[in-house]
Write a structure and sequence with these properties.
This protein has six helices and three strands. With about 120 residues, the chain is mainly alpha-helical. It has one domain (about 5-105). InterPro entries: GSP17M-like_dom. It comes from Ammoniphilus oxalaticus. This is General stress protein 17M-like domain-containing protein. It holds the Pfam family YflT.
Length: about 120
């Protein structure tokens, strides 16, 4: 499955890209923003009300490991957890290092296959 990814220059362009993704059927909970600075990531995520990459996306072990990783390693781990191929990560990391923002759209998971419905 191809994951929609966009590189934008600033918050204004991020909002425009996010509105475009919403018009394509993605909800704000399906959209993630990454910046090289963790503070900038959190500020934009809170302001625009997009989702953040956390335990659900990365798993608890990666989330704990991120505490001990450099920011670049943490970003690579987050991109990998979102399904971005390793060969693209380096290019995206260079863009983030230059102050750009990364917008990732990840479609919501279908209904839980283990959800049991009562028999009629």
């Amino acid at each position: 499955m191809e994951i929609p990814v966009a590189i934008v220059e600033n918050g204004v362009e991020a909002v425009e890209e996010i509105r475009k993704l919403e018009s394509e059927g993605y909800s704000l909970q399906d959209i993630y923003i990454l910046a090289h600075s963790e503070r900038r990531t959190n500020t934009l995520t809170d302001a625009i009300e997009t989702n953040s990459i956390g335990i659900l996306e990365q798993g608890i072990f990666n989330q704990i490991a991120n505490i001990f990783r450099s920011r670049e390693d943490e970003l690579c781990s987050q991109m990998e957890s979102m399904g971005i191929p390793k060969e693209i990560e380096k290019h995206l990391l260079k863009e983030l290092n230059q102050g750009r923002l990364l917008i990732i759209a990840q479609p919501s998971e279908p209904d839980d296959p283990y959800h049991f419905y009562p028999l009629m």
